[in-house]
Design brief:
By secondary structure, the chain is α/β, with parallel strands linked by helices. About 35% of the residues lie in helices and about 20% in strands. α7 links the parallel β3 and β4.
Length: about 475
């Protein structure tokens, strides 16, 4: 073993390797080495990755020639970050329109493509992801290593409760579970009646670990209670999530932990960046995420200049693959918002971290009377309220010349049964909590439990609809709570 275990280009892993059963780390050297020493190795790898991409595909060669950048210029992380231009999703879509179906950033022969995934294409041309067989093996190894860091071990049952389709999350979790030597349970999601069956299987099989979205875990907890089952009795010890903000949002995270009596781990970057778990929590520091820099090099940058921001500040993560040969992403702008830190971690790993996880997407942000508002921050406040019924909608519109914000929130069945006076007290509590967060006047409407459908995928809670807003205001003014 070198000082960085299995550190080769192209990556080549020993699929029979397992750390010692009592080891905290999969790769003790790589995960705990002096960050400056690791950075020196990452600089070498960045040069190798960029050399490979420059010689293998027109996309990077043309883009970098236009920017007067060449891989030979990389002598430090600063050189790479200053000289190498960023890639945005629009660049990828244009490349796939220009060279269908995988774009001119495919760096392997088409015959070597092993898995095809992609976006749904509901808002435009879908983006296809081509993954080579070697890359799939490397993804499985990276995910197994990171799941080990969460405290999941060979032989544990891992219940994968996510849609098996184009979505990368479920397949990536399954690949990692198989490589880890766990008992993979690819249950899936999305079919009618599947949630009721899921809680029955969870109760029967008592899996140690669970993967899905935070929204779906909360929905399954509700479903279990309706079926007369207690989710805390499922025996789950490790629950890890991706697909949406939530697992690092204190209110949401606390509700999941309370329902299942389980440790909760946040993970996930972007489907294009799979192994997406390369930004993930670890067992001793389950709040927030670690940036596993030797798998996927992460910068947090100013979203306008794409220059690295200092630790302790917010910006957008910019990612670079260090182990992908098929469609390597090099300085891909996520469009998400995160704060990063270089503080000492509880687990002893010497990576930077996103202590509050991903707040949400920058383009999900909306502005109300000059104030920037992120839906995940409202989610966090509402989820902390004991009488919150589990779902809400945020309605953004304009009444006359003024931006307006209205929140419709479900109450619990127990509170609803207490009548109008109790609901009015709750409405005032919600209004005060949101006002304290935002410093803005916000209209609040309390609605019946079960008003909004639950989801087995990503929750969408923001509505920008003027007519809906006017109708809600009329109901509030008429005294209907």
């Amino acid at each position: 073993m070198s000082k960085m275990e299995s550190w080769t280009w192209p990556p080549e892993y020993d699929n029979t390797y397992q750390p010692a059963a009592n080891s905290r780390y999969w790769f003790p050297n790589r995960e705990t080495m002096d960050p400056n020493d690791r950075d020196k190795e990452i600089v070498k790898r960045l040069r190798e990755v960029c050399d490979y991409a420059y010689s293998s595909c027109a996309f990077y060669r043309n883009k970098w020639d236009e920017a007067s950048f060449h891989p030979s210029q990389i002598r430090s992380l600063e050189d790479f970050e200053r000289r190498c231009p960023v890639v945005i999703k629009a660049d990828l879509r244009a490349a796939q329109q220009r060279t269908p179906p995988f774009g001119d950033y495919l760096c392997i022969p088409d015959s070597e493509v092993f898995h095809i995934h992609g976006t749904s294409g509901t808002t435009g041309r879908p983006t296809s992801f081509a993954i080579g067989r070697t890359d799939w093996n490397n993804i499985a190894n990276a995910h197994a290593r990171i799941m080990w860091g969460m405290g999941i071990r060979p032989g544990d049952i891992i219940f994968v409760a996510a849609i098996f389709s184009l979505y990368m999350g479920s397949w990536g979790a399954l690949a990692g579970a198989e490589r880890l030597g766990a008992k993979a349970f690819p249950f899936g999601a999305g079919a009618p009646g599947m949630s009721s069956r899921a809680v029955q299987w969870l109760d029967m099989m008592k899996p140690k670990a669970f993967y899905g979205t935070p929204s779906y875990a909360l929905y399954l907890a509700e479903t279990a209670l309706k079926e007369g089952l207690n989710p805390a009795d499922f025996g789950l010890e490790r629950m890890f999530f991706s697909g949406e903000p939530g697992a690092s949002v204190p209110g949401v995270r606390d509700r999941i932990m309370s329902a299942y009596k389980s440790h909760v781990f946040d993970c996930g970057s972007m489907a294009e960046m799979t192994p997406f778990m390369s930004v993930a929590a670890s067992a001793e520091s389950s709040m927030g995420m670690l940036c596993w820099q030797d798998v996927c090099y992460t910068e947090v940058c100013n979203p306008k200049t794409f220059e690295r921001v200092p630790y302790g500040e917010r910006g957008t993560p910019v990612y670079t693959h260090l182990e992908r040969t098929s469609q390597p992403m090099i300085r891909l702008v996520s469009g998400d918002l995160a704060l990063w830190s270089n503080d000492k971690t509880a687990c002893g790993r010497t990576y930077p971290s996103l202590p509050q996880g991903i707040f949400g997407r920058i383009d999900d942000m909306f502005t109300i009377r000059g104030e920037n508002v992120y839906p995940s921050e409202i989610d966090a406040v509402l989820s902390r309220l004991p009488d919150y019924g589990g779902e809400h909608r945020i309605v953004v519109s304009r009444d006359g010349l003024m931006d307006e914000l209205l929140v419709r929130i479900e109450a619990t069945e127990a509170l609803s049964a207490q009548g109008a006076q109790a609901l009015e007290v709750f409405r005032e509590q919600v209004a005060n909590s949101v006002r304290t967060l935002l410093g803005l006047r916000t209209l609040i409407e309390v609605v019946d439990p079960g008003t909004y459908p639950r989801t087995d995928f990503k929750a969408r809670r923001v509505i920008d609809d003027r007519e809906v807003f006017k109708e809600m205001v009329q109901r509030l003014q008429s005294g209907a709570v």
